[in-house]
Design brief:
heterodimer; A: alpha/beta; 6-stranded mixed β-sheet; 18 helices; about 25% strand; globular; B: mainly alpha; 8 helices; about 80% helix; elongated; binds adenosine-5'-triphosphate; binds magnesium ion
Chain lengths: ~400, ~210
C-alpha cells in the first residue's frame, strides 16, 4: 500500500509541481496518473522511489515513511520503466534484464532462469538474450524494459509514459501484456500517461491531475459516471461521456454455465464431455472452480497417446475480469479472432463465458435497439436532434 | 645510415626507452589523476568550470618555461621532467572525461539510478562505459603530446631522444637531429595508433558508426 499524505513538491526555482496531494494506492492496484502536460504526474510518480524528494508531507509504503529508508534499497524494491526505455546500450538483453538481481547479488542460475522465464512471458525466445538493445524493435525494447522492472520481484512498478513512443498496434499489444502480467503477478502499478484511452483500458483507479493537484481519484467507471467537475468532463471528452450510457459489461451478456472439466480429468473423459455437450472447447478449472486453462478437441486428439489428464495438455487462456466493458471485449474478439473469452471473478473463479453469439446481442441492441427508439419519437424531433 | 647505426645504435635504443619511460609514466599519472578528477567534477556545480579553467591556464604556460620552472622546485633529472609532462597531460584527459561523462544519455543515468544503483555503480557500470571513447580520445591526445614534449625533457637532464636533438643542434650534427626527430615522430604515431586501437575497443556498440 502506498499512501500520499499532504505531499507537496516545490522545485528550487519555486515551481509548485505537486500541491498538497493525498491519496492511497492499495496493494495490487493498477493506478494511472493522468493530466495535462506539467500537471505534476511525473513528479508525483518519482517521489515514490525517491528519485525526487518531497518538500513536505509524507509518503508511506506499507505504513513506513520512505524518508526513513535508504533510497538505493528502496529503489531496488520498486520497478522503474521510462519512455525512452533506459536500456543500457552497452549491455546485452540478458544483462539488462538482470540488472537489479545482479545488484542484489543473486546467483547466476537464478538470474538466468528468471531472464528466460520472463522473456518467454513476453513472447520472446532465448535467442534474444545475447542481442543488444539496438538490435531490437521499439516494441521489443520496451518489452525488455517492462520485464526488467519485474525481474527482482519488485512488488511496486512505476511506469512513466512507457508506451508513448510506440505505434498504436504495438502499444495496444503492450498495454494488454502489462495489464495481464500485473493481474497475474499481483503487482502494484503506478502508471503515468496523458492518453485517456490508455488510462481507461488499464486502470483500476485513475488519478486525474491538474496544476499539481489530484482533481479526482476513482475507478474509471465512477469517473465516467460522475465526473468531479468541468475540467474532468472536458478531459474525458464528450464522446466518452455519451458512450457511458450505452456501456454494458460482460456480466450482462455472458453465458453463465460454460462447460468445464477439472484438471485431473482424463482425456477420454473430456472427449466424452465434449461429445455429450456438443462443444469443441473445454475450460479447465481446479477443485475450487478457479480457471486454469483451456483444452480443445484438436489438442486432445493430437496428444491422446502421450498424455493422461487434461492438466498436461491445457494451454493458457485469455480471460477478462467480471465488470469488464463489453465494448473492449468485443474489440478483442473481432481483432484477435477469439472464439470466446471466459470471465472470472476477483478470486479467479470462472463466472461465465462471452461467446461470439454475445456480440450478436450487442449488434442487435445498437442497430435495432436504436431503431425502436426512433420509431417511438415523432419525426420532427428526430430531425431536430440530428441537426444538433 | 649504416654508419649512424653503428655509431649511435645502442645509444638510440637507450634513449628511445628513456623517452617512452618518461612519457608513459607522465601519461599514466595523468590518467590516474585526471580521470577521477574529471568524474568528480561532474558531481559538482561551479567548481568544474573553475578547475577546468585552471588546467587550461597551466596548459598555456610555454613548455620550455614550465620545464625551467621545475628546476628550482625539483632540481634536474627525470622526476621534474615527469612532473612537467604530467601537468601537460592533465587538461585533455580532464576535459574529455568531464564532457564525456556529461554527454551520457540522461535517460540511461535516470534509469540506472531509478533501479537502485549507487553513485559508484552508476559511474562504473553505466557512465564510464558510455563515456569511454571520449575519455580514451583525451588520453590519446595527451599521449601524443607527451611524447612530443618529452623531447624537451633532455633540456633539464632527463634524457630521452631530446639528447640527440639538442646535441645535434649544439654540435651541428644533422644526422643526430634527424636521428632524434624521426624516432620521436614514429613513437608519437605508434602511441597514437595504439591508443586509437584501445579507443575502438572500448567504444560501446551503440556508438559504433556505420
Ligand atoms: N527539475 C525541475 N526543476 C524545476 N521545475 C520542474 C522540474 N521538473 C519539473 N518541473 C516543473 O514541475 C511541473 C510538473 O512537472 P512534471 O514533470 O511532474 O509534469 P508532468 O505532469 O509529468 O508533465 P508531462 O506530461 O509533460 O510529462 C512543471 O511545471 C515542470 O515544468
Ligand atoms: Mg511527465
Amino acid at each position: 500500500m502506498i499512501e500520499f499524505k499532504n505531499v507537496s513538491k516545490i522545485y528550487g526555482d519555486g515551481t509548485k509541481a505537486v500541491d498538497d496531494v493525498s491519496f492511497t494506492i492499495n496493494e495490487g492496484e493498477f493506478v494511472v496518473l493522468i493530466g495535462t502536460s506539467g500537471s505534476g504526474k511525473t513528479t508525483t510518480m518519482r517521489m515514490i522511489n525517491r528519485m525526487i524528494d518531497s518538500t513536505s508531507g509524507e509518503i508511506l509504503i506499507d505504513g513506513k515513511n520512505i524518508k526513513d529508508e535508504n533510497a538505493v534499497e528502496l529503489r531496488r524494491r520498486i520497478g522503474y520503466v521510462i519512455q525512452q526505455t533506459g536500456l543500457m546500450p552497452h549491455m546485452t538483453v540478458y544483462e539488462n534484464i538482470v540488472m537489479v538481481p545482479k545488484l542484489l547479488k543473486w546467483d547466476k542460475d537464478k538470474m538466468r532462469e528468471t531472464a528466460e522465464r520472463l522473456l518467454k512471458r513476453v513472447d520472446m525466445g532465448n535467442e534474444f538474450l545475447d542481442r543488444y538493445p539496438q538490435e531490437l524493435s521499439g516494441g521489443q525494447q520496451q518489452r525488455i524494459g517492462v520485464i526488467r522492472a519485474l525481474a527482482a520481484n519488485q512488488d511496486i512498478i512505476l511506469m512513466d509514459e512507457p508506451f508513448g513512443a510506440l505505434d498504436p498496434i504495438t502499444r495496444d499489444a503492450l498495454q494488454e501484456l502489462v495489464k495481464h502480467l500485473q493481474e497475474e503477478m499481483g503487482r502494484t502499478v503506478v502508471f503515468v500517461t496523458h492518453d485517456m484511452d490508455e488510462a481507461l483500458k488499464l486502470a483500476d483507479k485513475i488519478a486525474i491531475m491538474s496544476e499539481g493537484k489530484v482533481i479526482q481519484y476513482d475507478t474509471p467507471d465512477n469517473i465516467l459516471a460522475a465526473p468531479a467537475n468541468e475540467f474532468v468532463e472536458s478531459f474525458l471528452g464528450e464522446d466518452r461521456l455519451q458512450q457511458r450510457s450505452t456501456m454494458q459489461t460482460v456480466d450482462q451478456v455472458m453465458v453463465k454455465t460454460p462447460i468445464t472439466v477439472t484438471s485431473d480429468m482424463t482425456l477420454a473423459e473430456s472427449i466424452r464431455v465434449m461429445r455429450d455437450r456438443r462443444v469443441d472447447t473445454l475450460f479447465v478449472t481446479d477443485m475450487h472452480h478457479v480457471l486454469q486453462g483451456v483444452v480443445d478437441f484438436e489438442g486432445i486428439n493430437k496428444n491422446r497417446k502421450k498424455a493422461e489428464t487434461v492438466s498436461e495438455i491445457m494451454s493458457h487462456v485469455y480471460y477478462v475480469k467480471s465488470g469488464t466493458l463489453l465494448s473492449s471485449v468485443a474489440d478483442k474478439m473481432l481483432k484477435r479472432g477469439y472464439k470466446n473469452i471466459p470471465v472470472v471473478n476477483e478470486a479467479g473463479k470462472l463466472e461465465g463465458l462471452v461467446t461470439r453469439a454475445s456480440l450478436v446481442d450487442i449488434v442487435y441492441d445498437t442497430i435495432w435497439g436504436d431503431d425502436e427508439e426512433v420509431e417511438s419519437i415523432p419525426l420532427e424531433t428526430t430531425q431536430y436532434q440530428e441537426s444538433e | 645510415m649504416a654508419d649512424f647505426f653503428a655509431n649511435y645504435g645502442s645509444q638510440m635504443m637507450r634513449l628511445i626507452w628513456e623517452h617512452l619511460y618518461i612519457s608513459m609514466i607522465a601519461l599514466g599519472l595523468g590518467v590516474i589523476v585526471a580521470v577521477p578528477l574529471g568524474i568528480g567534477l561532474t558531481r559538482t556545480g561551479k567548481l568544474a568550470t573553475a578547475v577546468i579553467g585552471l588546467a587550461s591556464i597551466l596548459q598555456t604556460v610555454p613548455s620550455l618555461a614550465l620545464l625551467a620552472l621545475m628546476i628550482p622546485l625539483f632540481g634536474i633529472g627525470q622526476v621534474p621532467a615527469i612532473i612537467a609532462l604530467f601537468i601537460y597531460s592533465l587538461l585533455p584527459i580532464l576535459r574529455n572525461t568531464y564532457t564525456g561523462m556529461r554527454g551520457v544519455n540522461p535517460a540511461l543515468v535516470d534509469a540506472a539510478r531509478g533501479m537502485g544503483m549507487t553513485e559508484m555503480q552508476l559511474i562504473r557500470k553505466v557512465e564510464l562505459p558510455q563515456a569511454a571513447p571520449v575519455i580514451m580520445a583525451g588520453i590519446r591526445l595527451s599521449g601524443t603530446y607527451v611524447i612530443a614534449w618529452a623531447a624537451l625533457a633532455s633540456y633539464i637532464g632527463a634524457g630521452g631522444l631530446g639528447d640527440f636533438i639538442f646535441n645535434g643542434l649544439n654540435l651541428y650534427i644533422p644526422e643526430l637531429i634527424i636521428g632524434g626527430t624521426i624516432p620521436v615522430t614514429l613513437l608519437a604515431l605508434l602511441v597514437d595508433f595504439g591508443l586509437g586501437m584501445v579507443e575502438k575497443k572500448v567504444t560501446p556498440r551503440n556508438q559504433v558508426s556505420g
